[in-house]
Amino acid sequence: MIYGYARVSTKEQNLDLQLDELNANGCERIFEEKISGVAKERPELEKLIEQLRDNDTVVVYQLSRLGRSAKDLVNIVERIKRKGAFFKSIKDAINTDSATGKFIFNVFTALAQLERDMLIERTKAGLKAANDRGRFGGRPRDLSPEKLEIASHALSLFESGSQPSKIAKSLKVGIATVYRYINLAKEQREISDFELLSRLTSVPGMMGGVMTIRGNRFPAQDIIEMLQSGMSYEQILEEHPILEMDDIKASVLYYKKESQ
Length: 260
Hints:
The protein is of the alpha/beta class. It contains ten helices and seven strands. It has three domains: about 1-105, 3-Layer(aba) Sandwich (Rossmann fold), CATH 3.40.50.1390; about 135-195, Arc Repressor Mutant, subunit A (Orthogonal Bundle); about 200-260, Winged helix-like DNA-binding domain superfamily/Winged helix DNA-binding domain (Arc Repressor Mutant, subunit A). Strand 1, helix 1 and strand 2 (about 30-35) form a beta-alpha-beta unit. The two termini are about 35 Å apart.
């Protein structure tokens, strides 16, 4: 089965050019969408991917109609490949059913992998910075659990737009203490993020280089798709005993950082 996917960003735009090209390339069913590429949910695209079977092909007029960035594009095409289907972009002359098309797409995959590696390196750098200041993982040594909770609350207020002076008044502490709480809470978050992200690995040559859980052949993207389908954390753990709660949290954190 050859599926087409056509998308424009606003309802005022029309799909005629894309539809003509998709029909000319043998598409038997076309999914149409008028929605921004930065939208987190694209219902028609999700319906298309859900219906894919072995040896199906997904055709788009050009790459920008499918993904909003290199990493987004790679993630979507990896989902298509995991269904046993192929991908074709008419204008960009990419077809993952051909040697040349596979090579070109591998370049995109390499760029997305570079972005992933840079994300991990930035997190590691944050941990090292905390270590250099005398914090070595876990709770900052000079904060009790109660004070750490206050520090996290101070950071939450600060990031939501509250002024330090108002936070100080609310917590009944000095402004200098507020800034200290904010910095310590940020360090703690960096440490916690690193500890979670370290559960994810990407091995060249395995699963197309996608992020997997602790080196197992379980893509982190699959966890995100299960959550998007409405499954709870508990349901995912019950259905997949190989997973742990922190594996789910790590996957959510990773894709949240990727989308920023």
